[in-house]
Amino acid sequence: MAEKKQVLLEVNNLTKFFPVKKAMFSNGKSYVKAVDRVTFKINKGETLGLVGESGCGKTTTGRTIVKLYEPTAGEIIYNGVNLAKYTQQQMLPYRRKMQMIFQDPYASLDSRMTVGDIVGEAIDIHGLGKGKERIEKIRYLLDKVGLNGDHISRYPHEFSGGQRQRIGIARALAVEPEFIICDEPISALDVSIQAQVVNMLEDLQKDLGLTYLFIAHDLSMVKHISNKIGVMYLGRMVEMGESNELYTHPLHPYTQALLSSIPIPDPDESEAKKRIVLEGEIPSPIDPPPGCRFKGRCKYAKPICSEEDPELKETDKDHFVACHLY
Ligand code: SF4
Questions:
Q1: What is the pLDDT of residues 64-92, one digit of tens each?
Q2: Residue among 282, 323, 326 whose CB has most ligand 1 atoms within 8 A, to mutate
Q3: Ligand 1 atom nearest residue 254's Cα
Q4: Which PROSITE patterns does this chain map to (predicted)?
Q5: Which residues contact 106 (CB under 8 A, 6 or more apart)?
Q6: What domains appear along the chain, each with residue ranges and CATH number?
Q7: In the 8-state DSSP scheme, what is residue 109?
């Protein structure tokens, strides 16, 4: 009998709106609807890839889950506990379990601190080791992410982009987390380095039983690391499914366009593949008009698309789509 998977994180109708100033003499308030009723689950030890263009709300989703932003509405159920209404004080034990790796490995590391201090800071804050034990732990972590333990006294500027990202990962691992939000961890890296970092994250996941939310705008890398993939468009989740299923049978016109833009190394295959070019403007996320948010760029749009915002529904086992075509 197949082993029952344990859900580590369940996000229900997660919503994050940011108030914005309205023009003079206009009434009421306006909101940037950055994340609007987003729902998904991540099983323990697995990865959910979250993709979409810049500004689609994927990073805000990650930051709201770890309560760097307070959610406007919805549930963040972590290991059975709803963290959505937790105060920052109540969040402290979860700060250790839930870590983030950031996009820019240089900006996220303090250039005045040595690598040992950067990785050791988290160990100190959480009281996870002192003296010799602390040093041993830092060396072990550097080794774990493919750096040399002797790098402990060097500064971030002495490393390449890929190595700096490895330092950021070692820092996240220092507190022995269960769940890591990888926020575009490879976007700023050279293409030749990207695969190395993704492979390392996969090895660490197997070794340490980690669970990931992997945020990216590049669908090709996400496929490699994700069990499931969610596609976001202007604050809404428009499609979600098992990684292979989503790649072979994309349903939402936006997912189809994203997939068609992935370059194929084989020139014959590439020639045969038709690229879907999206036309039209991305609407403003400030108080978007009713209906489907993709309608201005969708060649299949019909009258109902301007009236009703399609809800995410299951069309096949574990394959969800928000589109009036289904
Ligand atoms: Fe296109 Fe309508 Fe589907 Fe939106 S709901 S993606 S406009 S067909």
A1: 999 999 999 999 999 999 999 999 999 98
A2: 323
A3: 6
A4: ABC_TRANSPORTER_1, ABC_TRANSPORTER_2
A5: 156, 161, 164
A6: 7-22+29-250 (3.40.50.300)
A7: S
